[in-house]
Amino acid sequence: MKLRRFPAIALSFGALSLAAAAGCARETGPPTGVAATVDIHLSPDTEEITASVPQATTLAKLFRTYLPPDRAEAAVQLVSQQFDPRKLRAKQRFTLTRTLDGWLRGFDYEIDLDRRLRVAPATPEAPRELVAEVVEYTRQEATAAVAGRIDKQTPSLFEAMQAAGETDDLSIELAAIFSGEVDFNSGLQPGDLFRVAFQKVTRETGTVSYGVVHAAEFVNEGRHLKAFRFVRPDGAVGYYDENGRSLKRFMLWSPLKFEPRVTSGFSYNRKHPVLNITRAHLGVDFAAPVGAVVVSVASGVVTQAGFSGEAGRLVVVRHSSGYETMYLHLSSIAVRAGQHVSQGDSVGRVGSSGLSTGPHLDYRIRKNGAYVNPLIERRRMPPGEPIAPGLLAAFQAERDRQAALLPAVASPAVGPGIAMLQRGQIRSRAVRLREQRDGETSTKANE
Fold first, then answer.
1. Which CATH number belongs to the domain containing residue 19 in this structure?
2. What's the pTM value of the predicted model, to 2 decimals?
């Protein structure tokens, strides 16, 4: 929390004006000597408190922290005319200005990236007559593009994107687009490249957010992956490769919206970290902070949502083709049994409930009733559906327009035949490397 105190400027200006008038009446010259260098110290009249909204608090409790009870209640009633106090969110920034004798002089709260709540005097002449209003931030939106590289200095997508001058939010958007094609946990290699064209929104506060991603390219282990945004006549939005095939796979690579780290692999013979006995671990553990959003990797129906012994808070989703996915040790659950969820919908948040040594997500897949290794099974998913023939011409026109927005990146000059051979060789090598890594991950769990 930051606290600043301000002098009673109006009173000081009045005193200085009287002194100046008296000086003019005597027609004396400017002060000289010691008197000319003496500072005038003004006592504080108000103080400004800048902090973040604490967890599990209300607007009334927040105001009572800084104001007498009756004035806090009056402040809540004033704010309620323009803003629902129940929508106060933890960790959002606010600034409260009050007089030293406990009168509210101003309150500024960031509702979201687009709006803020402002409480201020109606006029400077009546500082106690406050008004509340919701104000939209001034924002500028423009089409932008960025390119980056994975290397020793920036080995993750987050680090590479930051080095290119953009934020983690754009990394998450890019990872979501290619989530069916790239393993952002262990599949990135030095020399991988990316290019993205997107809408960038900059607000008067300096904060940056992102609109739609128009087009993207990711070179991963020699594979050139491209994505172009296309809106079908029925309003459905999707990303497709240059040939019009959907990038949306049956299952996402991961149920987490960032680059998770595997801490324990699928194994039939693992020493349990709590029970200290050897038994099967029929899933994959991802390291993740408490509260991280967990999403359903595919569309389906929730068959279980609640507390389940050692699994803690558990969500089970049934999908087509005999698949079920399980999400264990959650801190909270966002769905109910019988509810339909779409791919990417939140089912809960990471926690450490049940038999657990710390915050993580235990993610499991069953196929026709038998547990399978999630890291291997997801590679067997079929490719996405293509654009309908009747829409292919419209897609190709949109693809060409969006491709022109991507930043230029130099690529080695090779003949078409050689390039095709190299891509085939590299793709085969990439598959072998992934299978080897998945096997090593499972083997480490046995040690």
1. 3.10.450.350
2. 0.60
